[in-house]
Each structure stands twice: as C-alpha cells, then as structure tokens.
Amino acid sequence: MSKYSVQQQPIETLLSWIKSGEIAIPEIQRPFVWNASKVRDLLDSLHKGYPVGYIITWRNPDIRLKDGTLSAGKRVLIDGQQRITALTAAVVGQAVLNKEYKQNKIKIAYNPQVKDHESAFEVCNNAIERNPIWIDDIAPILNGDTPISKIRRQYLEKNPTVDEDKIEEKINELQAIKNRQIGIIELNPDLEIDTVTEIFIRINQKGVVLSNADFVMSKIAADQQFGGNTLRKMIDYFCHLLNDSSFAKHIESNDTQFFQSPDFVKIKWIAQYTDNLYHPNYIDVLRVAYTYAFQRGRFSDLVALLSGRDFEKRSNTEEIAQQSYEKLRTGLMAFFNETHYKRFLLLIRSAGFIHANLLNSQNSLNIAYAIYLHLCDLKMSEHEIQHWVKKWFVMSLLTGRYSGSSESVIERDIKQIQEKGIQEYFQLIELAELNSGFWEHTLVRDLDSSSNVNAAYLCYLAAQCQNQEKAFLSGSVKVSDLFETRGDEHHFFPKAYLEKHGYKKSEYNQIANFVYTEQQINIRLQDKPPFEYLQQIQQDIEQGKQQYTSIPSLVEWRENLAVHCIPENWQAFRQENYADFLQERRKLMAKKIQQFYDKF
C-alpha cells in the first residue's frame, strides 16, 4: 500500500489553503531562519520556472465530532515550513518571526527592465527604494491589493522612456508566479503514527538531530481548536526565559496578547530564577508533563491521543482529542508551577547534586520530577516524597536506567508506580538490580573508567558534597565549595610521575586516581609520588609547619584520607603497584556510594 500521494498545485491554491486553515502550519514550529536573500532566490526560481522542491503534509485522521458526524482532518505541515513562510512573506506580505521571535517584514523588489537571463529580484533596501527602475515590493502585485493598471501607470510615470508594452508584459510575468505549480506530497491519513513520526524525523534531519518529541511539538503548535498553539508558546517561551531573562521584552513587544494572558503569568517567574542545576529544553518539559499527566512514555502515543485516538475502538473522536489537550495542559501547568519546580530542585540539591556538573542524565532528572509531581498529587508527606524521589533518582543514575532508548522503561515505571505504589515497586527493583552483587562487583567495575562523567563517580562526588566533607588535604574548604569556586581534580598518583613510567592517558586519568583539592595544594604537591608527598605532609603536621595542608592534627589528617577513600597502606604507593591501588580505592568508593544511597 502506498504511504503517500503526489500532486501539483498552483502557489495561489496552496496559500489559500493556509489562509483558510486547510493546512495547519505550526505557529512557532521553527523561527524563520532563512535570510532575505534566500527568499529572493526562491522567487527568482519560481519566476524562471525552476523546480523548488516539494511540500510534505500529513492529513490528520478523520475525527468523529461530538454530534456523531465525521470531520476531515486538517493537513499538518511535515516539511517545507521555511518555503511556505517565505512565500507567505513575499507573496502575501505577512511579517515573519525571526530567530529572536521578533516580527520582521521581508520586502522583495522587482526590476522589470532586466534581461531575461538576469535575476529580476533583489532584497529591498534604501537605495532600491530611491531607484525608480525598481518596484520596491512585489507583495501588493501578487496578493491583488493593488490593481496591475495602477502599478503599470506609476512605473511609467517614474520611467517615461521605457517601452510600455514591455513593462506590462514583465509585470504580467511577475503576477503569473502565483500560478506556478508546486509539488505536494501528502502522507496517507491511515498511516500508523509511528510511521508518520519516522518519516518526519528522517526528512527533517538535514544535519540536525530531531526526535519524535519534535513531531509532538509540530502537532500541538498546529492546533488552534483546543489551544495547542498556546501550549506550544508556553513551552517555547519558558525555555527561552530560562536561558535569557530579557526575552520577556521580546514577548511583550511581539506577542502582546500572550504577554497579557494568564498563561504568561504562569511562566514569567522563571526569567528571574538563576539556578543553573536544571536547564530543561522543550523536550524535557514535554517529557515531564506527558509522563506525569498521562502515565505513558511513548511520544508517538501522545500524537495519537492529541489526534483523538481511541486505542480500543481504533477510531478518532473529538472528545478524546479535547480531553488529551486538557490533560497535557494539566501536566504543563504542574511542571511550570513555581513552588513545585523550586522544591524539586531543592530536593535534588539536598541529595548532594549541587551543581550541573554532577548530573549526567537529563532523563533521570525528568522522571524524578514526574514522580515528584505524582507523589504530590497523592498528598504524601514532604518527608516521604523526599525519601522516594531521592532514592529513585540515585538508583536511576547508578543503574543507567534511562540511558539510550528509554521510552518503554519510562512507561513501565510510571504505570507500575501508579498500580503498585512506589514502595512496593521500588522494593522489586532493589531485589532485582541493587543486590549485593551490584554493590560489591558491578559498581566496582563501573568505577573502572577514565570518564569523569561516569555516573558512579558523580554519585561518589555527590556523596562528598552531601556529607559536607573537606577537600583532599584541606582543613576548612569543603568539596562542595570547589564546585562553586576554583578547585582542581588532582591526580593522586601525579600525571607526570605516571607518564615518566610509561603509563598512558587512559591509565593515569582513571577516576579512582582523582581527588578534589584546592588549587594551591595541588600546585605544592607537584609531581612527587604519593608515598613521598604523604610522608612529607605527615612530618609537617607533626612539626606544626602546615606547608602542604591546613589540617592541624594527624587524627584529622587520617580522617581526611579516609573520607577520600585512600587505602591505609599508602606507604606502599609506588608506580609498580598503581593497579592494586586503583582496585582497592574502587572498592572503598563503592562502599561510600552504597552508604550514601542507604541514607535516603
């Protein structure tokens, strides 16, 4: 069975479909990123009869209205938004949104006196406006706002020596652009949502990685009946305000109606929030809202539900579409709730994850937030919520639960939490995945890595932050302080020392060879082997010199070594037993991580 049909339509017909809403163009699916010269080139190609590519649409499945009648689904633009927007700007004369989401008018000028092989179009500027040989804006001619006779008469008044018949012919050629054919590929309405999503992702890539969430965003942005276009604005504007507080001025200037709406009130607070721990993009916002509100994980199911899909009856109804948009709005409002958002991040910080550098899984954060919102709905006590969300978050990091393709795992987790309750379901996970074998072997093996974004290592550092532990060889500065200021990841076995004995980068950069310390201490230690600089430090403390460290006593010094998981037999730390040191320290680090996890 064919997945699509191909047809040719005049540009005038295509634009009439857009005006009438027959083709639903996502309002802010993507800002208009073409520069004005590309718009000019598109018009020139159409003028010369060159092909300009295909527009790809998907006709939404027919939907059964509440009165029982069937309504033909609108065409959703899958590919070709930039060309459509360019035509709307140049032919209809509408302003477009630029990269800063400002309204921008693009005027294309036309010179009817150029030779046939030359380009008759140019982006209008001040010089062109003053030059009588140019018609400075083609839109009134193409959209019919100004009669052709008036255009011709005005041009001849400015250029009295030109051939009147030739000018009339050229202006008629210009007007004929709207009759040029453009190819439209229409995906069949009975295609499975997964198939349409896959087609969307493939044809839209062009060097940019897209996901099924992008298709969801296009879907909701194209909806006006149930307010999807407004929801898309909330998501998009929230993410912009999070990164640039001045963007509120752009919204005020360019989208006054939204700026004055209750929906803007719900998100404007984020512009003044300076916490850099969690920087969700539109996919993250959508993930949390969808997972929380629908108890589902697959974004393709969300597209189907927003299309009104009744999975049991295998049909589409207006009622389900409306309910789905209302449910999505509920999820988004919960995400945007200032109290929820700030309390959740406070919870994550209190677990020791005080800096974005300690987080390597955005999905783990997203699902933890969705679970947090779910537990709030259940009216759990704040203590219980903190306990379960922290424990779930750390578990998901340590096990890499949401790495890779995770939608099926997300869906299973949220459904099981809903059905069994978080306590019973979590106990099942712990029995299966966090047994003694995990803590004593799997976690130790995971720490055998040279990546400083290794999840186990980041949990180890979070444990040090949560425990308020002092930095390596520091009497006052804490590990947590070093994430906010200038701290160094010191090679316990110095890099130069190991390099001199033939060790490779992947060997001396093992995470079990790193300790967080103050920069000045790191500089003083230089490239001495551990047994040497530790002996010197011990003597300094005994003599009260404090040349290398501000730690005042041997007892506190030994405690400092212990909290950094330094094995007690440090006198034996030479390059020939470096591998033994790493293995011993990994075991101690794994125990520390387990103790950290068990505290929640």
TrEMBL record:
<feature type="domain" description="GmrSD restriction endonucleases N-terminal">
    <location>
        <begin position="11"/>
        <end position="220"/>
    </location>
</feature>
<protein>
    <recommendedName>
        <fullName>GmrSD restriction endonucleases N-terminal domain-containing protein</fullName>
    </recommendedName>
</protein>
<dbReference type="InterPro" id="IPR004919">
    <property type="entry name" value="GmrSD_N"/>
</dbReference>
<dbReference type="Pfam" id="PF03235">
    <property type="entry name" value="GmrSD_N"/>
</dbReference>
